[in-house]
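During the first year of the project, the team set up a workflow for recording each protein of interest as an amino acid sequence followed immediately by a discrete structure-token representation. This format lets reviewers and collaborators read both layers of information side by side without switching files. As required by the reporting guidelines, we include two representative entries from the current panel. The first entry is reproduced here exactly as it appears in our internal archive.
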Amino acid sequence: MSEKKSLKVNVIMNALLNMSSFIFPLITFPYVSRVLMADGNGKVAFATSLISYFLMIAQLGIPTYGVRACAKVRDDKHLLSKTTHELLIINMVMMLVSYGALAGALIFVPRLQDERVLYLVCSATIFFTSIGMEWLYKALEQYTYITVRSVIFKLISVLAMFALVRAKEDYIIYGGITIMASSASCIMNFVHARKYIYMRPMGGYEFKPHLKAVAIFFAMSCAAQIYTHLDTVMLGFMKDDTMVGYYNAAVRIKQIMVSVVTSLGMVLLPRASYYIKNKQMDQFESISRKSLGFTLLAAAPLSLYFILYAQDGIFFLSGADYAGAVLPMQLIMPTVLFIGLSTVTGIQILVPMNREKMVLYSIITGAVTDVILNAILIPPYGAAGAAAATSIAELVVTLFQIVVLWKDIKPALAKLQYWKMLLGLVAGTGASFWVMSLSLGSFLSLLFSACLFFAAYGAVLLILREQLTTEMLGQMLGKFLKRKK
């Protein structure tokens, strides 16, 4: 397989992988939301958000650092094995520290004592993720394996969900199945790793060279977790589980859209690191320019569409009882664009250039912004306040990274044809807006409006011959004609 084709396959596989992580709850959530109601969903959302902080301690920034470190030595099995062992040992030590901290929290924090069983069940993700070495497989660009394995476990979990979650009291079972869907496949990762590395002890381990970079990535992870999950945790402490349930419903659709537009960043991290190490800067600049264009083309219409049709999205996903989630969803959807851009500028450009400190500073700035705004907006506005705070924080992160990289990405940004994208968005809005006046029900309204919106958007880009759109269409037609011959 050629390098170019390999990248395309990796992007598709990683997009499917990321989407499956949210399509699984999207399939089950309409059922579960009606069985558990906002209160039960809020309990599980609060538990998973809380456990994410202990998972962050166990991971210590290795998920991102490990991809870069292993990608640099992937052509040498001995060095790859040694690097993997060192990072895995660090993971195991931090996993024990994390479980110790969790035990202390469950004993001494009154708010957590009523649902200890739920928190312990959800904490299984700490163990699974620690032994899973997902970063190794991403460094080796084994996205087909990762995706197929993950989808199989998620399909099993979907069946388990419908079979076992039958009453409002089954929220602990729901939490356990959610963890199985997202993390249980990590056991296969551990067993399968012998295909790529030596599993016997290597000896001569050196942990010190990793610690500085790991510390930076850990700080990045800490700051990112603050404004990724703090809104949910603060809602749980400052409001109640029902408000968390509304917010969680709003976030579901946003997460799926984010997974689509960010699929490029982590796929291109190992390739970008490889290009920089081998001083292939033309290739590095080329994939960076295309990924910026792809992100704008994909994220802008997705954000706008789900702002316009938030009510239909929420009602279809969760039911009319979740009307309180509509405004939060509208307020949080701009983050699809902001996160998409910052994934490119941060993960794909700054990290391979060994400028991860700039990513850290941007995330800290965003985290501080989020904490302050959450404290101000959650008390009077609840879930809507948390959503607004998150959007502003993500915007701050994105602007920070763009300013840092301005000289490097200015030529790429200058080549993007913004006015064509804007006309496409206007056309999509105009073509679909009349659907709102019809009483079609949430599903049919989403179906017809989405077809009209994205068909009009794509048609305008093609008619105006937007560069990246015509290039992608040409490549697809070329492949089709080649196969036909």
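The second entry, processed by the same pipeline in the following quarter, appears below.
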Amino acid sequence: METFLKQFVNGLSLGSIYALIALGYTMVYGIVKLINFAHGDVMMVGAYTGYFILRRTGATPAGLLLAFLGAMTVCALLSLLIERCAYRPLRNAPRLNSLITAIAVELILQNTMRVLPFVGPNPRQFPTMETKFFSLGIVQVSNVQVIVIVLSAVLMVVLNYIIRRTKTGRAMRAVSFDMGAASLMGVNVNRTIAITFVIGSVLAGAGGVLYATAYPQVDPFMGYIPGLKAFVAAVLGGIGSIPGAMAGGVILGVAETMTKAYISSQYSDAISYSILIIILLVKPAGLLGKKQVVKV
């Protein structure tokens, strides 16, 4: 029982990071029907931003706070640049064009970081706080796990408040429902889409620092696998559904960790993707997704 609870906490920690990144995928898809495959590499840029800040300040609570703020800011600015230069000109183009552009942006970010002289292709050790353990009944939880789970939960609650309770959130939901009608009702569509990219990238920046804190190593290609897993989590929960992205991330993280603990680490990816296939066979829209009727 103790081993099960310990692995469950590990899975919850990993799943919380997946959920944060998955929110960016599902928000962008919900607004402009675009799979932003560069999202995982935005997370990588956030992790590197946190790395350079922590190298200056040290792995202290204040330094970690500055790392989060710096990563969120850099990722927000990067997302504005990507949306304005790469995605906005193709908004009315066929979806395949936008998909290929997203893959191109992903490769550009990876290789740009790889050739920058102050980054380089080699992995670097991410500065981390001293690990301390706390007893919760029969389970010991590390301070890193507490930070990951609590901060992820806080960011998800803040996002849910923005979507449900603010004017910006109402504009985002309106554009998601009908972009043309929202524009006729006075909603600034370009600004709303840009804000959506910024919010998703802010969460990715925080997720990048959390991921590097939990798995203390950064390299230019570190965003590929977490980004892919987060995309799987978004589809699992129902692409376009914010609660679905949260649920999908947690389910994927717990399933992956339990597989490593009780079966084999070699099968963790296969079982994660198998869960996705089974869910989509039973419920094609995902766990919390809704069927959409398309008129032709």
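For the second entry, the following points were noted during internal review. Residues 37 and 155 are 22 Å apart (CA to CA). The radius of gyration is 19 Å. Both points are flagged for discussion at the upcoming steering committee meeting.
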